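Board notes, transcribed. Complex of a protein with adenosine-5'-diphosphate.
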Amino acid sequence: MLETLLIMTLVALLGFVFLQHRQQQQALRRQEKRNREVRKEALRERDQLLDALGDAFLLVNETSHIVFANACARKLVKGRRLMGRSIMEAFLDDQLSVAIMKCVRTGKPMQERVTLHSTYTPLGSAGGQGGSAWVIDAAPLASHGDAALTRVVIRDVTIEYQADQVRRDFVANASHELRTPMSIINGYLENLLDDDVLEEPVMARKFLGTMRKHGQRISRLVEDMLVISKMESGESMVLNQEAFGIDDCVQDVRDRLESMISHQQAQVVIDVQPEALQLTGDRFYWTQILFNLVENALKQNPRHGLQVAIKARKDDEVVTLSVCDDGVGIPAADLPYVFKRFYRVEKHHSQSGIKGTGLGLSIVRRAIEAHGGEIRATSVPGQQTCFTITVPEGEGHSADRMPDSAD
Ligand code: ADP
């Protein structure tokens, strides 16, 4: 009897312990599930946050495999798989992967700027024009459980890089353009002073004439560079917004170029539609635009009898201005580049002496863009070369600043 009681108590006890254990197990499982959900939610929030970043963000493990890539990183490699891939596989360009690997291997934070050739992107395939630049900022994460993770931020700094490049090119080109006439002047000065050329008036005069021509070129270059730098310093380049008559501008231009026109016996035909007479904007710049275009036509064609036509039309609130000539024209291969700074058509300039700075048309384009308009050039050499400007009639009211773009 006692035995039976003892066995029953033992069974009841065992049942109780088993029940307790099962309940504990269930509670533990529930807790684990909750923890998992909390972790999942935290990861989802982290991913959302990192996806909102404007820079590419990666987490790389100690074997240099990617364990996380945000939306920007995925976009950067145009949908190629990143997760689970090694850095070397993910980025086909060595410069990027080597920089990231350096940090993974050394475990030291690093920042590196990488410039990729124009035909390469982080994908290693053909990309945009003019190259791209990236800043890679990588650092090991302080502690992340057992895994040693490295965070990598890849920032696109192409816009800053290209703006820098434009500035560097400008300084290099400007120095080069100034150095040539300067050294010619210095050379002639040496001849005059050291070789007793002053004793020979005819020769001395010839030397002085050449020096004057190059001196004028330097002045012109400096003037054009000042105009460009004024246009690009947004602060000082506030456009006037006045209504003015195009015919007044054309007349100014004619007066200023009168000696060239009559010397070349050129014919300048002006054809301004009455509706297109009024323009709103900065009269100073519109005069400069027309001056540069008409002067170009004359100076590229010193032969007698050149025909230059200045036309203005208005259609659907858009004013179209054109300056056309029937001179030597611009070869098709040069046409796309004539608005670039310092670009001059080699063929024209190798034949004759000093003709310009190569800045005139880039000044023209920037001034037109500042008025919300655009310009294009067409040419059939020997027949007709036209610079055609289109500008919304009332655009001058809103365009009060020069655009930031640089050519
Ligand atoms: P430049 O000061 O040398 O004239 P521009 O920027 O005004 O510089 O012009 C760039 C080049 O485009 C010129 O050097 C010239 O070779 C070419 N060009 C411009 N206008 C004409 C034109 N009407 N006819 C032929 N060539 C032209």
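Confidence is low (pLDDT under 50) at residues 396-405. The two ends are 107 Å apart (CA to CA).
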